[in-house]
């Protein structure tokens, strides 16, 4: 029985390079040529290893969430108070979104901002991830009410939407060249909207 030729490239490293390209350019502008050049492979190898550009993008987004974007879920899960969780999340966003080691902003927010009909499915995928993140924040806020950190009548959905809007704005500001210090100031201002118990 003959076996196929082994892959001559590191799939994980190639996926990381694809992630960086999608993060920098977005889904549609990241052409197969740009992707394969960054990944150091031929188009045929991309299709053999990842299926197609659409599936490669989904895999890159999953990798982003498990690595670069994992700090938000960690903040919500690890901090003992709802306020501490949101404040840590916003402060870590300020540092992460401006880290010069990778493209600025958030891939999940900016990966498909401007797209044609062919990329509507990509935008829907990213929107669903953002909505899940907003729901996780709202749930953490409801826990804050249960723990009597927040007033019983606090509008957790409105507060979660406010926080999501701040996060989207921080991502765009980072892409426009805002510094970590500038975004930390935004985070501090956002926390002033925290309802008092």
Automatic annotation (TrEMBL):
Xref: PROSITE patterns: HTH_TETR_2 (PS50977)
HTH tetR-type domain sequence ranges: 8-68
Residues within the DNA-binding region(s): 31-50
Keyword Transcription regulation belongs to the record: yes
Record keywords: DNA-binding, Transcription, Transcription regulation
A family per Pfam: TetR_C_13
Gene3D superfamilies, sorted: Homeodomain-like, Tetracycline Repressor, domain 2
Cell cycle recorded as keyword: no
InterPro entries per the UniProt record, alphabetical: Homeodomain-like_sf, HTH_TetR, Tet_transcr_reg_TetR-rel_C_sf, TetR_C
Listed name of the protein: TetR/AcrR family transcriptional regulator
């Amino acid at each position: 029985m003959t076996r196929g030729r082994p892959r001559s490239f590191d799939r994980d490293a190639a996926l990381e390079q694809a992630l960086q390209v999608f993060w920098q350019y977005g889904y549609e502008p990241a052409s197969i040529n740009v992707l394969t050049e960054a990944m150091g492979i031929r188009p045929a190898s991309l299709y053999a290893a990842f299926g197609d550009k659409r599936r490669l993008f989904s895999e890159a987004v999953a990798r982003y969430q498990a690595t670069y974007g994992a700090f938000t879920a960690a903040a919500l899960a690890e901090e003992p108070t709802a306020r501490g969780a949101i404040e840590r999340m916003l402060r870590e966003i300020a540092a992460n979104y401006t880290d010069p080691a990778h493209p600025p902003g958030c891939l999940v927010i900016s990966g498909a901002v401007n797209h044609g009909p062919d990329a509507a499915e990509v935008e829907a995928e990213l929107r669903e991830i953002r909505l899940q993140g907003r729901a996780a924040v709202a749930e953490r806020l409801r826990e804050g009410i249960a723990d009597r950190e927040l007033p019983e009548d606090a509008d957790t959905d409105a507060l979660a939407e406010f926080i999501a809007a701040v996060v989207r704005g921080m991502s765009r500001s980072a892409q426009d060249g805002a510094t970590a210090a500038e975004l930390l100031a935004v985070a501090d201002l956002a926390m002033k909207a925290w309802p008092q118990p």
